[in-house]
Amino acid sequence: MVGLLVVLVANVMLAANTGQYPIQISETIAYFTWILGLNESAPEQTISLVLTEIRLPRVIASILVGGALAAAGCVYQGMFRNPLVSPDILGVSTGAGLGAALGILLSLSIVAIQLFAFIGGLITVAIVYLVATSIRHHDPTLLLVLSGIVIGSLAGASLSLVKILADPYDQLPAITFWLLGSFASVHKQDLYAALPLCLLSLIPLVLMRWRMNVLSLGDEEAKTLGVNPEQTRLIFVIAATLLTAAAVAIAGVIGWVGLVIPHIARLLIGPNFIRLLPIAMLVGANFLLIVDTLARSLTETETPIGILTAFVGAPVFVWLLFQGRRSWT
Predict the structure, then answer these.
(1) What is the second-level CATH architecture of the domain 2-328?
(2) What is the pLDDT of residues 269-302, one digit of tens each?
(3) Rounded Cα–Cα distance for residues 8 and 28 (Å)
(4) Which pLDDT score, from 0 to 100, does residue 323 have?
(5) Which end of the chain is more exposed for a tag (fewer CB within 10 A), N or C?
(6) Nearest 5°: phi and psi at 231?
């Protein structure tokens, strides 16, 4: 954990110095020492403006979204006892994308679009959970997965319908670019709204993270050990959904992070959820911060983050399939 924190600090410094406007490492250090009150001389106004208004909000958003998606992925993989499960399994990302697309179709402001995305993700998962809990005498975990697939497909079809109805010269490109994920439009006000939601969602996960180890044993074993699986599963679903919806609302749909990062953290620290959760969040924060730095520095025009995460996630997913094939044989 200490090593990952050191790497995160180094990545923050690298991201703060990378961009179209050149900033020296000494100027960035002077800026941070001035912010912390260790240096009385204020930095140059242009440098302070670039770091405060543009780069640092993106850096903080990358760390926040990467940690949130990684934490949500850990929860879903532990709850469904499957390392190939991602936060998209219950349709939260598709629902959030549908909400954002509706906001763009209605020509709303960026704040309203983010609110629509957040509410869309919550409504989708709420419908999934209501459908799954209304059916009795079946495996509740399997019902959640099947309900997520059905409702997610319905939300995806609705999203396609919104794309057809959108203006092909203005609204459709905006919807497409938003669905690919980007931190280009992130402002400090977005962080003020997303940070409390993420912290509020992490509180039950941190306090109850030992129960995930029990829940991964199955419902019968959990009941034997004194844990209510239905109640615990609901709390974990709500917390993971809030994390994912908040992340998607400010950055768009970013795939593969919730799938790949928890598995990498599991290889580093093991399956114990008590240690897995913080390590996965640090790995996710480092990963998405590096990807965002590459996205805005590889070419003159910014590359959507979802494209870069797919280039990393797809090969890792194939490798996981081959690892699973060896265990099957």
Answers:
(1) Orthogonal Bundle (1.10)
(2) 888 999 999 999 999 999 999 999 998 888 778 8
(3) 16
(4) 67
(5) C
(6) -65, -45
